[in-house]
Amino acid sequence: MEGPPAVPLGPSHAPVLTKRGLVCSASPLAGAIGAQVLREGGNAFDAAIAVAAAEAVTIPPMCGLGGEVFAMLYEASTGVMYGLVGSGRAPMRASREHFVGLGYEKMPTSGPLSSAVPGEVHAWGAILDRFGTRALGKLIAPAADLADEGFPLPAVIGSDFSRLVGNGGVLRDYPSSAKAYLRPDGRPYEAGDILVQKDLARSIRRVAEGGVEEFYTGGLAKDIAAAFAAAGGLLDAADLAAQATHVTDDPPSVEYHGHRVYATPLPSHGVLTLELLSLLDGFDLAAMGHNTAESIHVMAEAKRLAYADRLAYVADPAFVQVPIDELLSKEHAARRRAQIDASRAADAVEAGELAHAGAPSAHTSYFSIVDRAGNAVSYIHSNSTVFGSGFVAEGTGILFNNRVGRGFSLDEHHVNVLAPGKRTVNTIHSYMVAKDGALRIVGGTPGGDSQPQWNAQVLSRVIDHGMNVQEAADAPRWVHFPGTDPSSIDRGMELRMEDGFDDDVRAGLEARGHNVAPYTAEMMVGAVQLIAIDPGTGVRAGGTDRRCDGYPIPE
């Protein structure tokens, strides 16, 4: 398979070690702001809001005020792990019949019709109300200053502008979007250019002064609703006012090789990472070796089984009874695992039949924080695809997600058929890992449908192969494509591999029936952020993916 050259990777480095707080972010500017909050006495939850707001400014292709959130939250004083769902619903006027009536056979993946209600800002309030010690306005003020004064685009984010905006793209379809993310002469920004976002700065300051209510029921909410109405979108003031963030103290979890892995609740893909790990728990990956043809084959075949189950059974639990306990049970894993042929890739993979469900019918930013008290946050937020819907609400500087366009089907029999007020299954998710009752790992990565596969690879490297967090983040990765995205689900299967794998590994996979293909320049390669905690010494080790601009920043 021919294609553009692989995405260039930055230099690696040793893990950053500290006994105090630590922030791992894809944005050094955002990470520095979070570390400063920790130095001034704020906790991990306070720092998370400061980092999230700053990343909304410094990583605009990936996340923002118009996006959504899932997070794992660990409260050290109680030892309780919480899962947070901050994704948005489809607008109440968004029905299957509406889109079919407009002539759509598949959901539009860009523009104001593709947006879900944004959950980012609402999640900030929910976290601070329950766990925070600082005022929202103070925590997000540095983000507003960054947007107002501007900042130089670093290498990876700069390449997103030049590669993705420079080739046309939806940002050129709306004057408000072009104003926000194109230079005055219409050319895309490049690495090293100063990006100034005056409208976004004003919106952040409005939230700082008026609180979460300003975004969802106040003047900013009215401006957002008016912008959507003028552009032909469906999201309105009532949709914004009805947004809710859900926090549970019983997030899903599975055992993996002597560890307990927790992930964000439905409707996130946390369940997908967990089922994949549950399947792999029955294989001795350590004995198979790291990144060998044998281990990659087993992991790729397990991926196919888990993804088939997700496509058949997983949806918004408010609309569909999802058999999550059975999907994550050891019995289900044993039945599915028995279908893997160690010597040959399966020709086709169907969803597993569940006793309680019957037979089945036929781009993002992540960061992690640990504070000196041991509180931890595993936080992922997203516009869905790179630059989301491409639609910036006029006068606000806020770029909106395209989650409705990417996550729903117009097939009336599909488990994820569009319905008013429904949340789509969401690729973004994060995890935490405990052993013997102590928090050991805080991690995650952006990457859409690739996230469960990369999470499994990274955890296997740490748990099975003894790698440190930086080695685990940096090692060559693979992804089995397609995943679950409706726009690509019908494409032929490929096992896409970065540079760095030996030729005999590729040959061994091809001999097992895999269609091995390279990564190309337009493919998202992830940005793993990883913190490991040694409960004996209290040392925290931070690793930040060489594929991003970030670096672990200690308190």
Word description of this protein:
It is a single chain. The radius of gyration is 22 Å and the shape is globular. It is built from 20 helices and 21 strands. Strands 1-20-19-15-14-9-8 form a 7-stranded antiparallel β-sheet. Strands 7-4-3-11-10-2-21 form a 7-stranded antiparallel β-sheet, covered by helices on one side. Strands 16-17-18 form a 3-stranded mixed β-sheet. The chain has a domain at about 15-245 and about 365-405. By secondary structure, it is of the alpha+beta class. About 55% of the residues are buried.
Strand content: 15-25%
Trace the largest sheet across and list its strands. 1-20-19-15-14-9-8
Number of strands: 21
Overall spatial form: globular
Q: Main beta sheet, described?
A: 7 strands, antiparallel
Quick gist of this model?
The chain is of the alpha+beta class and 555 residues long.
Looking at this protein, list some descriptive labels:
7-stranded antiparallel beta sheet, disordered N terminus, 555 residues
